[in-house]
Amino acid sequence: MIRWTEQCIPTLRNAPQDAEIASHRWMLRAGLIRKLAGGLYTFLPLGLRALRKVERIVREEMDRAGALELLMPALHPRDIWERTGRYEVLQEVMFKIHDRQDRELVLGPTHEEIITDLVANEIQSYRQLPRNFYQIQTKFRDEIRPRFGLMRAKEFIMKDAYSFDVDDAGATASYRKMYEAYRRIFERCGLRTRIVEADTGAMGGQSSHEFMVLAEAGEDGLVECSACEYGANLERAEIGDQPPRVFAEADKPAQAVPTPGRRTIVEVAAFLEVAPEQMIKTLIYQVDDQPVAVLVPGDREVNEVKLAHALAGVTPVLANDAQVEAVTGAPPGFAGPCGLENVRLLADERLHGLRGGVTGANQVDTHLVHVDLERDAAPLHYVDLVTAQAGDPCPRCGAPLQAKRGIEVGHVFKLGTKYSEKLGALYLDESGQQHPCIMGCYGIGVTRTLQSIIEQHHDADGILWPVGVAPYTVEVLIINHAHAPAVAAGEQLARVLTEAGLEVLLDDRDERPGVKFKDADLIGLPVRIGIGEKSLARGMVEMKRRTDGEVTECPPQDVLKTLAAWGIAP
RNA sequence: CGGGGCGUAGCGCAGACUGGUAGCGCGCUUGAAUGGGGUUCAAGAGGUCGCGAGUUCAAAUCUCGCCGCCCCGACCA
Questions:
Q1: Omega into A77 within 30° of 0, i.e. cis?
Q2: Is A20's pLDDT higher than 90?
Q3: Average pLDDT in the A237-243 region?
Q4: Protein-covered nucleotides on strand B (Cβ within 7 A)
Q5: What is the pLDDT of residue A218?
Q6: CA of A515 and C1' of B33: distance in angstroms?
Q7: Full set of structural domains in chain A with CATH
Q8: What's the ipTM?
Q9: In what order do the strands lie in the sheet with A344-348?
Q10: How many Å apart are A97 CA and B52 C1'?
């Protein structure tokens, strides 16, 4: 049992101005965290208790799934990152420091290299596999823009696990185990998550799934099918087949028309009185110093993640004005596929069979109408290049997709042998043959998960902690501190509940009842037990469930029974 | 990295244009009353006005530099 007067729970009547989203405001107002600087937060006692609850759930489920906990350094020598080539890839997000010998060290943004190096040294035989190692540790990332409190911070706590298997079947089994463990973890945290297919990004590897907490404040866009189970991050979401785009007067020959000063899709469409979807947007990218023309429907946007995949992983960079002019012979705004030579052309699938289209003529102030791509442009390579949007057909079943926003709290990857090969994590099989381990990696943003719980569980008055992660389970609230019998009864009840094994916070402050009720709602412990003069006169205490406001009275000796009926057991 | 905004008491803000040595609400301390949803009265404490230069008799206020924080954007022709 802890007394409020002996704890440090600095609740705020109003939130600091820079708190943008609900969960961030409540964390500050309820005295869970305080900001040191942008993206850097102190966990106050109540916040830390909740964080430890989340960690405990993660630990229990990881252990249950057979993963082995260890702890790796946060500080890494530069060299190990260069061995996989990821020093280059991640240098933007890595904090770098130098020791007194001027040796460069980085603060770990993730730990694939470190664990793989360990396994390379310690595991030699198939008899030692499979293994899955995990840790709960602080990661450091120099985010472009930290925001939303713990959601995107420069320093955050992550649970990261790494599996090592002898073959694909084993790797898939390890992946499934983690996938299931994650479901359980988030469920126990009281989170409703949506699992979606995801891009592997800087991690590399073959496939991955993200665990998303659906929320308006989410930083990731995703789509889910209105009919089947399909769901995917927007970076990756595929789009089902759509009928070819054939517009009016499709049979007419292509014709140049003047479009003075009309450069953008919107301007040209308005000027020529055509719809944006009738237009062929032509973007010039630089890929390894070579220009590539990318064609997409005028009403769509290029998905650069998909484009990078189509370009064998090379990150495309949009060409500058001079480069566009060198390639197309016209300033930006008038590029089109017809007559474009010496440039690699990539077209989005939705343009396949397009007739009656409108596009730039590669000549200043001029566009082409009645364009038939098959007829008027060089043979094109069609791939999926645009970002999915609401209403697009599902790639699995064709039903309309819905757009949502989500907070990525977990991500599981099949990595293959990318790291094990480069760092020499090899094992000998039964016949003495050497093979690289097949790896998987699995992350959970623990601090982000904590804040997501609040994002999903709050009302107008404060937090509604799910029992499993609440900093304390029960708040005993002495309504009138001047009423000695109530004080005594509150102390007594808190003691009894604590002895029964419950985590109890006793609000023993000499405050007005209103203040204490408001604070109780704010910090949001699952159960509030009010000890008041009036009910005490009847031999009763008042129990209130925070989640749904359910209220009941019972004699103090029946409190444990009522808690049990509410599904709260010590 | 580009654009915009902000930095005055723990939190929320005013004062700045028109320089004269800092104020309001909440919170905090003490006392009293009150005691079932942020109660009331009285008396207090608390500020290098982000930092550093400059202008001036005088700078929170004007000028310059720096630092920090927040928001938007980061090239979709």
A1: no
A2: no
A3: 92
A4: 1, 11-13, 25-27, 34-39, 68-77
A5: 87
A6: 18
A7: 15-212+405-454 (3.30.930.10), 255-383 (3.90.960.10), 472-565 (3.40.50.800)
A8: 0.92
A9: A317-318, A280-287, A290-297, A344-348, A381-383
A10: 28
